[in-house]
């Protein structure tokens, strides 16, 4: 049981940290917002930050953990197009930046799996 709470706390922490960075450093996120989305990139940067903070709160609380974990899995899938855009935009960058951009793509799979595990352990 403690291990499961630890997994949920770690996931909530990751989501909360990511959510806060959308407000503290929005310029990191604005360029990877897909151009096909309506409105400004900054709107989507802030909206995704709010979503990450809300999902973090849901994951952190035992009574909403199941729904929070499912929402986290959906969120990780929903941001995949931004990661694809980043990889495409950074294909001509240096090797370190390319590694970061390309590394984000397969990273979504274990993140979705982790969120799913947390959802399954929820109340």
Please characterize this protein's 3D structure.
The protein is an all-alpha fold and 123 residues long. The protein has one domain (2-121). Helices cover 80% and strands 0% of the residues. The protein is built from 6 helices and no strands. It has helices spanning 2-24, 26-29, 41-60, 65-78, 80-89, 95-121. The longest helix is centred in the C-terminal third of the chain and has 27 residues, at 95-121.
Short description:
This protein has 123 residues and is mostly helical.
Terminal CA distance reads 12 Å
Q: Structural class of the secondary elements?
A: mainly alpha
The level of helicity is over 70%
Profile the largest sheet.
Answer: none
Average pLDDT level = 93
Oligomer: single chain
- Detail the poorly predicted runs: none
| Share in β-strands | under 5%
Features:
mainly alpha; 6 helices
List the helices and strands and how they pair.
Blueprint: H1 2-24, H2 26-29, H3 41-60, H4 65-78, H5 80-89, H6 95-121
């Amino acid at each position: 049981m403690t291990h499961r709470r630890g997994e949920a706390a770690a996931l909530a922490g990751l989501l909360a940290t990511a959510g806060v960075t959308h407000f503290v450093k929005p310029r990191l996120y604005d360029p990877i917002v897909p151009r096909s989305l309506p409105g400004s990139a900054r709107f989507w940067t802030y909206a995704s930050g709010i979503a990450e903070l809300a999902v973090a709160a849901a994951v952190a609380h035992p009574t909403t953990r199941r729904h929070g974990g499912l929402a986290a899995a959906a969120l990780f899938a929903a941001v995949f197009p931004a990661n694809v855009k980043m990889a495409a935009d950074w294909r001509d960058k240096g090797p370190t930046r390319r590694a970061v951009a390309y590394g984000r793509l397969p990273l979504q799979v274990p993140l979705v799996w982790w969120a799913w595990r947390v959802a399954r352990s929820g109340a």
